[in-house]
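haha ok so turns out i had the wrong file open the whole time. this is the CORRECT one, sorry everyone. sequence first:
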Amino acid sequence: MSTYATHPCEAPVTFLCGHIFHKRRAYHGPTMQVPSVPSSLSGAVPPWSNNAPVPCKLCRENKLWEYDWRRRVWMKKDNVCNGNNHPKTHHPTAIMLPTPDTSHVPYQRVYEPAEDSFLLLDTLSSPSETAFLSSRFASPSPSSPSPAPLVLEVGPGSGVVIAFLTAHASTIFGGPHVLTTAIDVSPFACAATNLTVSKAVSENTSTSGFWTSATQGDLVSPFRPGSVDVLVFNPPYVPTPDLPAPPPTGLQELKDKTTFEEDSHLLELTYAGGRDGMETTDRLIEALPGVLSERGVAYILLCAQNKPEEVKGRIRAMGGEGKWKAETVGTSGKQAGWEKLQIVRVWR
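then structure:
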């Protein structure tokens, strides 16, 4: 058993990497070598989570450990730590739900899952958000069941996020009675999403909700007012001089072959956000009061260049002060003192 230097007045906080920290002394490090991490601390959690073990701040700042967004696990840096001090990898805990398979997706024309996609997965499956969603859409009583919520992802790309929500509906929403759908301007993204969700549901039949289909369209235009209960949007958020035009009419139907220019244009649609990276997102925000139900909630991803504090301020001012709420519920961590990516929850 390892012996740690302890503060006489305060119990230590033990981190995933084996270090301890005392808030009063700001003490870091064990007095003896840590041969291993107890199995109870061997779970991986998102870097923004405060309710489960993570590598300590000093290890993260010195990049002894890094969060692998693709695998959604904490990993030590092989060139810094030796195996006696830190285990090489840590596997997800029970709350880290498996990521849907997207190996079938044609990434030359469909957005490949990246850090922003995985931040959405980690945020939506975090204890705080699953508690919020389960409470918000719970039936008031067994005799008066609540209508099944309709979950919509706008711009699903590969479909990894909506597949995750569909496959793990029981865990995230507190029950399997959830309808899910998606809409994208790209027919290739719609086809990829349908396959991604189908595969994820077939692998998680005991926890999955009810998938309808991915539809080609512009934002929320096909949906009736007040019909959407949960809306998820990973927008094109990169600031660009202009917005790309919608897909040309020749791509309204799926084709076996596309030109390099057509593929490049489809990918440009996934990231180019126009002025401040907000032109498409602003259109979606303006549509929220109409498309969301009274209990509806939206999750919107923003980057630092989108000026998220200003965006949240505009949302809170919609319909009069106090009617709408907007709070950051997930971040990808800080770079140079500012949050790189964040997930904003919007609700009444």
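DSSP finds nine helices and 14 strands in the chain.
again sry for the mixup
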